[in-house]
Amino acid sequence: MSSPPAYPGIRISGCWAEGSSNAGSLDRLLPAVGTGRSPRKRTTSQCKSEPPLLRTSKRTIYTAGRPPWYNEHGTQSKEAFAIGLGGGSASGKTTVARMIIEALDVPWVVLLSMDSFYKVLTQQQQEQAAHNDFNFDHPDAFDFDLIISTLKKLKQGRSVQVPIYDFTTHSRKKDWKTLYGANVIIFEGIMAFADKTLLELLDMRIFVDTDSDIRLVRRLRRDISERGRDIE
After folding, report:
1. Which residues are in the Phosphoribulokinase/uridine kinase domain (predicted)?
2. 172 is in which domain, residue-wise?
């Protein structure tokens, strides 16, 4: 079993959860049991000046228009709620994130993966990575400055450019992915709780605890099928 986090928490279905003083405010974002509402999944959104285009008897769907966290004057009415998901490699963080997205009854949810923020490697590091000698599971492998600035902008409702990392070449692609502000931001990664400044931006923190043997099998399968690695 992977070790629980250093901070106090509770274990829920294989997860350790701990929130800041205002973590309870997430309750207002979760659908009440038995309401009959069907969950919606939205990981990116477009923020334009037009009003919402689609209304139903139960809700307004913001297919385009002013984000609901901005008032009629165009100023931000509240900051986005940020959830951090930590855990070992292949522990199921992305799966838990998708379950949270399905459960949330809000128009906009952004999923931000730490895998996008690996640092650009030097020539020596590239050679180490080519021989599987570079440790990608270490805090020094991540660009925390870019992670923090990106998360701050998303919490402010601003759009961001996120790098796209190529795991087969161990490098960033030339293209960047655009993400937009949201009601809720889910940030997941193996080192999601490794930086103090980053921790302060997270309103709730969840640690996904999965058996090490299961994680090993999952990681081998993922690295071979998705990241161009071999069994050696």
Report:
1. 83-232
2. 10-226
In a domain, 5, yes or no: no
> What is the CATH classification number for the domain harbouring 68?
3.40.50.300
Does residue 3 belong to any structural domain of this protein?
A: no
CA 88 – CA 222 distance, rounded (Å):
14
Residue 118 to residues 29, 49, 115, 138, 171, Cα–Cα distance (Å): 31, 34, 6, 10, 8
Question: Count of domains in the chain?
Answer: 1
pLDDT in tens, the chain (232 residues): 444 444 333 333 344 455 554 444 445 444 344 444 444 444 432 333 333 334 445 554 443 344 555 655 556 667 889 999 988 777 778 888 888 888 877 778 889 999 999 998 999 998 998 888 888 889 999 999 999 999 999 998 889 999 998 878 888 999 999 998 888 899 999 899 999 999 999 999 998 887 666 766 666 676 555 555 555 5
Q: Which two tokens stand for residue 129?
A: 């990575």
Q: Residue 104 burial by CB count (10 A; 0-12/13-18/19+): exposed, middle or buried?
A: buried
In 3D space, the residue among 55, 49, 82 whose CA is nearest the CA of residue 67 turns out to be 49
CB 147 within 8 A of CB 139: no
Task: Tell me which amino acid residue 102 is.
Answer: E
Helix (H, G, I), strand (E, B) or coil at 95: helix
Is residue 213 included in any domain, yes or no? Answer: yes
Q: What's this model's pTM, rounded to 2 decimal places?
A: 0.65
**Cα gap 184→157, rounded to integer Å:** 10
Tokens 């477009």: give the residue: 46
Q: Is residue 183 included in any domain, yes or no?
A: yes
